[in-house]
Amino acid sequence: MAVESRVETALEAPEAGRTVDVRLEHVTKRFGDEVVAVDDVSLEIERGSFFALLGPSGCGKTTTLRMIGGFEEPNEGAIYLGEEPVTGTPPYKRDVNTVFQSYALFPHLTTFENVAFGLRRRGVRGNDVRGRVEEILRIVGLAGFEKRKPRQLSGGQQQRVALARALVNRPRVLLLDEPLGALDLKFRKQMQLELKAIQHDLGITFVHVTHDQEEAMVMADRIAIMNQGRIEQLGAPSDLYERPQTAFVAGFLGISNLLPGTISGRGTVRLDDGTDVRVSPQALDGRTGRVAAGVRPEKIRLGHGEENRLTGRLLETAYVGVATQYVLETTAGKVSVYVQNSEPGAREQAPREISWSPDSTFVVDSTEGAE
Amino acid sequence: MAVESRVETALEAPEAGRTVDVRLEHVTKRFGDEVVAVDDVSLEIERGSFFALLGPSGCGKTTTLRMIGGFEEPNEGAIYLGEEPVTGTPPYKRDVNTVFQSYALFPHLTTFENVAFGLRRRGVRGNDVRGRVEEILRIVGLAGFEKRKPRQLSGGQQQRVALARALVNRPRVLLLDEPLGALDLKFRKQMQLELKAIQHDLGITFVHVTHDQEEAMVMADRIAIMNQGRIEQLGAPSDLYERPQTAFVAGFLGISNLLPGTISGRGTVRLDDGTDVRVSPQALDGRTGRVAAGVRPEKIRLGHGEENRLTGRLLETAYVGVATQYVLETTAGKVSVYVQNSEPGAREQAPREISWSPDSTFVVDSTEGAE
Amino acid sequence: MSAVATAARQRPRVGARAWAFTRHHALTVYSALFFLYLLLPIAVVMVFSFNNPSGRTNYTWERFTWDNWIHWDDVPGIRSAIVLSLEIALLASVVATVLGMLIALALVRYGFRGRGTTNLLIFLPLSTPEIVLGASLVTLFLNFNVVFGFWTILIAHIMFCISFAVVTIKARLIGFDRHLEEAAMDLGANEWATFRKVTLPLIAPAIFASLLLCFSISVDDFVVTYFNSGNEVTFPLFVWGSARVGAPPQVNVIGTAIFVVALGAMLINILLQTRRSKGAE
Amino acid sequence: MGFLHRHRGLTPYLLLAPGIAWLALFFLVPLGFLAYQSLESGSIDFGYAFNWAWGNYWDAIHNYRRQFIRSFEYAGIATVLALVISYPVAYFIAFRGGRWKNLLLLCIVAPFFVTYLIRTLAWGTILSDNGFVVRTLHDLHLLGSDGRLLATSTAVVAGITYNFLPFMALPLYVSLEQIDSRLIEAAEDLYASKLQAFLRVTLPLSLPGVVAGTLLTFIPAAGDFVNAQLLGGTKQHMIGNVIQAKYLELIDYPAAAAMSFVLMAVILILVLAYARAVGTEQLTG
Amino acid sequence: GGGGSDASEGTTSVERKLAKTLRMSNWTLYIDVKGKRHPTLEQFEKKTGVHVKYTEDIDGNASFFGKIQPQLQRGQSVDRDIIVMTDNSRYPSLLIDKGWVEKLDKSAIPNMKNLIAQQRHPAWDEDRDYSLPWQSGITGIGYNAKLTDPVKSIDDLLTDPKLKGKVGVLDDYSGTLTLVMLANGDDPGKVTDASFDRAIKKLQKASDSGQIRRFYGNSYKEDFAKGDLAATIAWSGDVAQLQFSNKNLQWDVPTEGGEIWTDNMFIPKGGNVYTASTFMNFVYDPKVAAQIEAYIQYICPVDGAKAAMLKLDPSLSKNRLIFPTKQMLDNVTSLDAKAFNNEKYLTTWNNLISA
Ligand SMILES: Nc1ncnc2c1ncn2[C@@H]1O[C@H](COP(=O)(O)OP(=O)(O)OP(=O)(O)O)[C@@H](O)[C@H]1O
Ligand SMILES: Nc1ncnc2c1ncn2[C@@H]1O[C@H](COP(=O)(O)OP(=O)(O)OP(=O)(O)O)[C@@H](O)[C@H]1O
Ligand SMILES: [Mg+2]
Ligand SMILES: [Mg+2]
What is d(CA E150, CA E152) in angstroms, rounded to the nearest whole number? Predict the structure, then answer.
């Protein structure tokens, strides 16, 4: 159900007039003289929405969260929680809870006391604490671990304690820094559903840092893709995936085939080998001159059933569980194709012709930045 | 190419007569009186092979690695490296290096010195050290970070230092405890290729703990699935995926539909709603009585093109980038179906009929243990 | 962003800053006061090192003079006393810290039979009144016909410093992350290399603290030393002895000098280090 | 080294060996003599004879109860004061000291390189009845009618506090310095005010240092005599002074020995009770 | 007391040959100093060829006795030829009674004739067979003329309300008791339980009432110098020094009488008697005595030293704290030797001062 509801939200355009819960205005954070961890970032996160921060390692995600949480002060720019600027407001005065990337569990406290910490600080007492802590521990699958100290837990269990410790407080804003990174797929999926359910039920604003694009795509209402301290693109998941604006975004969100060429007319890109590729006019977005036409591997079909076509020689085949990946050498460049393994033996084919629809084609500025 | 080579290896059956590099014999490890972290585990890992340990959080993966590395002594059983039993051998006498789940970077040393640590201990000096450290830092994408202390690195960067620190020594056996967990998909893929290349070039034996099944499937020659301290199944990736022996394994490696029923004849399982499902005889593996027939969501087609068929009502639709997931309520139970998003709008369908091939059907003992 | 809005945004920020500033500085101010309190008597000692009393007692301020500094060892016996004290204190603090560190490692790292007893044994010397500690040690030395002097003083000092070293270093080891040592061993470092390259640098503050403590205890000890010194005279013995007639200002000179030299050396060390690390960048 | 690893059970004993041997030879053996002596009776004039004179212990407890109690009282107060006074400074050095850490540490210890007597003489000058401090306090009506700081119990306690500060501050620093500041951040993130974060996270994590510091202060302070001797008035003598007098002035070695054992026993009982209260792991690692 | 041990038997005065080194332990800063040197010791070395290993390691009678006692008890040598201890303590008589000191070789000390008459026959060593005075001092009352009218009697000291809390009393058993007993009209030379109790009671009262600031060791000087003490029981030599810095500090023998004490040289068992005696003879030369006196400025026990001092430093020779008048010397006495070793008295005394 949670997944269902997500789909709805994701498809809605963000309405004007909704309250903004977290706002960053031209925020820059430097470490020392040389490192610019966050570089002139502005963004708005709506109340109750699920916002994902995605980006390569070291791009500034954690630093951004730490500034929202109040652990670092920006060198420039301002941060607002609700309407209030929070520069100088200490973390404990911000109704924000964080799941730290490094967990930061209290080593001297048991699992139970770690999770109860925030509740006790806000004056919740006795059975209330017990009830809420046990409830949340059950949700993260740690019932029965109450008495263990963090060092007696496995990595994934520690991460779940960190998650529980933040969730149990039901803050207005929850900052999650790769909260599920140490969990196995199955459990992660389950936790994703739980998180969505909690967000839905309590109207908590989630700011979720993850390196798992699928997770971001499934869970988030809006995604910001960061790169080297800057935001490359910000939008709904399907927007980012299907209409990436830059080669970086196209390359970052899954594999994409970028074929260099020149815009040769309304809705046409002429690739460097002379092939014409049809694209939807709005994908061109007013561009002229050199661009790259992009298409996702899974949008490509083997055979020539669609309007845009290429032929090539099979280079590699790889079996990846759900699907088989083919890499073809075409005149326009290397092209990856994903074909679902609907039946055993599907991967034995040796395809030569591929095709895809103009609607699946996007256009980005150039191929620099994406491999 | 690396991917290609994997496919070849994975398809080969393990030959007799190959040297075994790591062997565990009935190893049990308890913490205190109550926790049995590893429970009577036996396994053999061949020299130069890529072995993956997969399992839910807290199942005993790290503990197993720690025993191989020499940080914990088993309570029962014996561990062999090559032909030698290593009980009581200190870690530094084992030609084994570990990437720790918690990184365990030396906080007082720079990135460079962290990575150079092992080399220096083995008497490598001067320019040799510099050359090798810089080379490996380049590979993990941390050139230019030599002088930083661990505290000044992002989570993913720290993980890469941990990886580099172990890789640079080119040990006989490399134990990797979720070495790529904090990296983004793109970089992770790149590192996977690097790791495979290193394994291939240097003939290092890899024991790789990961919670990313896809990673395990792509990289490993053999996979062991652990659950609650025991090994549930051990085999080549495609074996595990396509012919899981237990419901736990089926459920753990991706979503699977398990439909309870009874074996009603040679190659037939009669589901509880009366539908007959055809399966290949070897999938039955001599079972009789109550079983569950399983099929992966992506092996199911919309429509009735295949031999095994069910009809149902659409419950949910979710868009997950590459594919769309449908959940149908059928008379035999809920069934998930994955359909690749070959073209935009594919997800708008409302399917009622599904079908799949007998070859894609597997049989497991019962549905307990898998949700 | 209009000017008004900017101003409105900044007002609370300035307030918060000011508050944070004050609080930040409360601790600093307190610490400054603490050091003032700690160093106040040293300032007095220092001032009186420049006094030129008419009699032999240096209690009240009379005239300023450099003489005490120029002729700092014009009191027979004072030079050998301070040299002896420094030698003993240096050796004792190093040996006691090493022995104490080993005990602390054993106590924190290993469960073994007799751990509780060992722990108690560590507290015993602390709880023994100095006079009986010193006197009973004399009995021991006499039984073995040991000649009293440098070595007996050193032995005694090491003996009562060990407990301080153990307790101080233990306080550090208790919070130590064992994974780091595992990582070092994993990378081929044997116990000794692991200790030198990982454990030691990480417990260095405790080692340093222990050295300081042991040094200060040793260099200031009177009672135990007195009994076991034979006819050697350490600096405290000299000072306490001179109390009958009144300590000469040279005593102040030496006290001040140790203090100033120690601090100066440390300061230079820090500045050099800073320079070096700046130069390296 | 390989040997060490193979015989892991031996390692702790090897580590302990040199230090414990030292203590055994140069402390425990003499302590044995002392124990023997404590059961002797007689006098210097006629010699001492061993005759299981348990009465020495009884006398020690019975006749000097007042001084015993006073010793623990003074030592206790001084320990608490030293803790309260030096904690913020240890905190300051650990978290704000930066590259000046070692210099500041040295500053804490360096005053004690100056011999006790000289230091106390200096305090005498500062706190003299005619000095600036006493006059100011007087003018503020903060001093009683006898109008002095020296030769009072306040002076003794203050003296002990001052002279044992490094034993408190350094262990505190040592354990504060290794606290991961991210844990404090986490506490603040979970609504703990600065004070609460301190009480709930920093303080418990620095407990090993607190325990070490309090023990290093309390135990020797309870047996201290010199502060009472030089700073006290007529009624501030501690058990250390009594033992000192018994040994030197009265040359009653058995009595001095017996009192020492009583003192040690009481201290050990208190230490064990303390360990029980704060959790043995802090004490024993 | 027990006899000497075998070890010491061989080293008695039989052999009249100077040793290479003379080992002397003395109180700190208790011999003349010039620059970094001790002229007297150098002169002795020059004259006799005996090197003096001079150690200033005595800081108190009790503690020094405690330090050497274990060796003496075992009959071991203490590695010293001369030690200096004060006669207003129990230790000199203990040393003699226990046989822990050697007899002087009087034939080597012709200068012994210069010993002043008052010092020739102390109760604990009737014929000076074992000891020879080094320096003396008088216990009297010191007062600060700026803070109080002259305090002439112990009764004033212990009861005058104007002095409340500004009175120092020495923790010195002999000095304080002698003065108080004299004030009570008792004879300190013959202590009885009754006279002892009276003295203690008087002190106890003054202590309880807060009249007495505290019982002091050496540190009374500092408080006296700074004005924290208006009046105090004090030693003559100390006040002589303090006066250089503060003319207001006065000292006198109390009207009821004062106490004289003497630091005596002893030869501990195993010491070289002949060499030690030769040294004693040397310092009993009036010129040498005056030279020592000119530096340490206590009371010199050597006749003729005053005359010699006239040449050295006339102003000092006139100082009655260094060369007391006959009247002063007539008005001083010392405590009953028996009282020193009375355990009961000592315990009572210690309970008074370490309350
Ligand atoms: N020191 C310890 N004391 C008690 N229990 C422990 C200790 N270390 C691990 N365990 C328990 O042993 C089990 C196995 O832990 P292990 O770390 O091997 O799990 P894991 O498979 O690595 O899990 P993860 O994927 O979460 O890292 C867990 O249930 C854990 O709680
Ligand atoms: N204390 C620091 N001093 C110097 N540089 C720092 C510090 N903390 C972070 N950085 C640098 O700032 C950049 C951004 O770091 P940040 O932790 O925000 O990355 P991230 O996006 O969270 O990465 P990851 O996915 O690896 O966790 C990195 O290049 C990092 O090296
Ligand atoms: Mg991060
Ligand atoms: Mg693990």
Answer: 6
